[in-house]
Amino acid sequence: MLNITNKWCKLPxxxxxxxxxLWSHSSxxxxxxxxxIYTSQWDLGISLxxxxxxxxxxxxxxxxxxxxxxxxxxxxxTESSLFHFIDDQIEPDHYTYQRKVLNKTRDVEVKFDWPNxxxxxxxxxxxxxxxxxxxxxDKQSVQLLLQLDLAATPIIDGKTYAYxxxxxxELKIYQxxxxxxxxxxxxxxxxxxxxxxxxRGEGSDRETWIWFAPxxxxxxVRIIQKEADGKSYQIDxxxxxxxDG
Length: 245
Hints:
There is one protein chain. About 10% of the residues lie in helices and about 55% in strands. By secondary structure, the protein is mainly β. It has one domain (about 5-240). The chain is globular, with a radius of gyration of 18 Å.
């Protein structure tokens, strides 16, 4: 995406973290529990269709759980993020990810230890610890904080949003860029939606696009993911129910 991303990623780590803390500003928006149903399309060499569900539930202890589950015959994907919402910031506690395609399964678990500013990663049968900094997110909750930040600030084409994410045993900068608007047709109506691209830097063969609809409290109405091997995945909103009424 933007060349400036690579320049920032090469800055000394302390300065980079300072930039992240500045970017991850407090959001004025509030979390709204919801349940959303999507159609899913998978291109795994053969085309498959199925259903996906994304939900945000507030638990009795005040914590939240964000869950995404999608399936289509021989493929499935499940993500779950347990977190607390403190001072308008998301503080992850536990993240899990499982993807199954044919007979191949990938499982990932990330446990956050905030008193010690550490994370325990488990993947592929191996486990290891890594250091984190305040404001670190997991790979799914970053989408939710991006949604809140979009709702809280004016959107300008080319504007970037960057977050520190615990991913694969590393602290990575997830950067997103506002890339215009599209009218997205859904069974709920047609919605002008913000088109946001995940900036993975020059040379990346992977693409992620997310569309957020302001008239639906910036809910996600479409996601398109394209992998380096040519496989792709898309979800489109079909139903949305607010659970805070």
